[in-house]
């Protein structure tokens, strides 16, 4: 029996000493091309007062574009930007129109969604395992009466064993020691 155990243990040690060599290597064969795209959008929502637009074009690492939006004070902010590997990111910001003293009034205010949700809270109360040892020394109580009796003395002993198992469980957490 000891020889079988020694043989299995020797094989396990020899197997753990071998270097790990990958069996195969996945090769990504598709060559990545530089990014080329162009997009634009325009929003003119008279219901909410949202007015904005953007245009952007990319050729490799060079990006050029612009966007504009109507600010709450009535000004239109226009940003022209470019970015490349040599010059980094550059932006020119300009404003058109005249600012009003009061913010622009919206014709529509979206309703506020009232959401009442409270995520479940996991309450975890942990204290170290409690070992309660209650030991009362043996108490010997002798019953003796002045009258001669053949009754043997009575000894009452009280002892409680230590608490060796503590369990706690809730719907989310369980603890057993």
UniProtKB/TrEMBL annotation:
Q: Gene Ontology terms, cellular component aspect? A: extracellular matrix; extracellular space
- Among the Pfam families in the record, one is Chitin_bind_4
For this UniProt record, the keywords arranged alphabetically read as follows: Cuticle, Signal
Q: Does the keyword Protein biosynthesis apply?
A: no
- Listed GO MF terms: structural constituent of cuticle
Where does the record locate the signal sequence feature?
A: 1-17
Identify the domain of life: Eukaryota
Q: Which InterPro entries match?
A: Insect_cuticle (IPR000618), Insect_Cuticle_Struc_Prot (IPR051217)
Asked if the Swiss-Prot or TrEMBL record annotates the protein with the keyword Plastid, the reply is: no
Question: Under what name is this protein listed?
Answer: Cuticle protein
Q: Which organism is it from?
A: Papilio xuthus (Asian swallowtail butterfly)
